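Troubleshooting log. The previous run stalled partway through. Resubmitting the same two chains, unchanged.
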Amino acid sequence: MSAAVVTRQEVEDFLFLEAQLLDEWRLDEWQALLDDDASYLVPSNDQPTSEPGTTLFLIADDRTRLDERLLRIKSADCHAEFPHSRTCRMISNVRIDGIDGDLVRVAANFTCHRFRRHGRAYAFIGCYRYILRRGKNSFSIKEKKVILASEELGQLGSVSFVL
Amino acid sequence: MAGRRYIIDDTARHTFRLNREVLVSEHIARQEIERIFARCWIYVGHASEIPKPGDYRTRRVAGRPVIFCRDAEGEIRCLFNTCRHRGAIVCREREGNTRRFYCIYHGWTYDNSGQLSRVPGAEAYGSEFDAACLGLRSPARVESYRDFWFLCLDEAAPSLADYLGPARDYIDLVVEQSPGARMEVIPGTQEYDVAANWKLMVENSVDDYHLPSTHATWLTYMANSGVQVRPRLEEGLVLPARGRSVALGNGHFTTDNINYRGRPVANWIPLYGEDARAEMADIRNELVARLGKERAARVADTNRNLVIFPNLVIHDGSSVTIRTFYPEGASRMHVTAWALGPREESKAARARRLDSFLTFYGPGGFATPDDIEALELVQQGLANWSDDPWSEMSRGMSKPDNEQLNSDEHHLRTFWRRWNQLMTGGA
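Second attempt completed without errors. Output:
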């Protein structure tokens, strides 16, 4: 990867790979995309631009908590996700918001459809905001923030999987 | 419906059963609106949410759109969010600060005490038209206890203080976590639906019997972080520490547990980090100095899930949550949850409190999603109710009331007896 330039296509390729890993429940491979100090954040719907130290979030994982979350989600005792829900992510409007050394700020819109048996269908819609770290051949995830577009979680119920 | 029994409550045979119809019937769900929600005190909001004159929050309480606000004089009010002219919502924003509420339909305008202050073209009305009588209406009763504000649609209801009765002491235990008795709702609202009857959430909020099975992954997480989670089987417990179930009258009840899972005020566990030890010791010392050793231990070393009948839950556990919920028909509920903390706490303590909240609670926590799944599985299973009509709720019933454990079903029976009384006119 060129040191000076990051193209949208490179970023898109990475986001599409990430989406595929999550949709296919290849969580160990997804975990391998994370920085050692990675964080995963989902603000409460009514406070989309806030910080987790002062505001109640839905999810505010540091790397340790995120590793525990993945252990949980992979377990058959994670009842909300067993049997695993089927998901299908669409990612679009990808833009590079800034580059600072090896860190790249990326924003993208997403739709994540989630399906459970008996016709239960949920559409999570919103914006991903990433801080990606540029490596030799690809990126790693330093921060993934998921800002939901809906006014409340409402019929989506819970966020029991990785968005 | 005549003659149909909702509960079997046979103390001689230590048998308590619930007719599952009460969880699926739309007819009963409609009756509950009048017999439960129009008669009981229902939680509206916390004074800290509207600290300044003109502050307001709009929300639905007991299915009613209301404005919870502080008027220009600083008085807290609860107004029906409905224009007196033709009925439109007059305040559409979630929160804010305003001197007036303006109806976009015909322009009627109310001040922040609810008084009608402007009617466009008022001269077209006759002399009988009295703007003074056309202010925004309020619920029949609006009262508070220690900054927790409630409404009641029944003019003849007892005072809120009497209604709460002994439950007040458990609210006090929450408020006493703040040195100046100044608890505040922290920004960030969790609003989510559960495709299940609202009464299942009441049960679930205090039912510690479900913890080992429903929350196995949370217990694993706690164990991985260094918390001792093995159940004390030798004491007949299914949980790591002893806990009681306590009935508080009027259908209120609580668990009252020896804490093993950490408390921001003030019971350190490894999850909080070594850095937190010193500050948490200071928090504990302040409690002891202010409340005495015994009461401080009561605040810091026990955790409690309190239900104020019918639909307010205060979890005073890994953090403090306020949770309320309201039915949308028999098979769905809307849940709203907030975090509560002492206004005086440091930045680090606040961050620790919020972090601790998310270890367990909420739609992205390590436990609540599995509760939601469990309640939705119940609701799905109840499709068989007419052929398999009774739920079993006798656990612990052969023991006296003062020996009821948090993993027994005494508190559930407390709820259902009160519910049955109100629904069948026995109250």
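Takeaways: Chain A touches chain B through 37 residues (CB under 8 Å). Chain A has one domain: 8-153.
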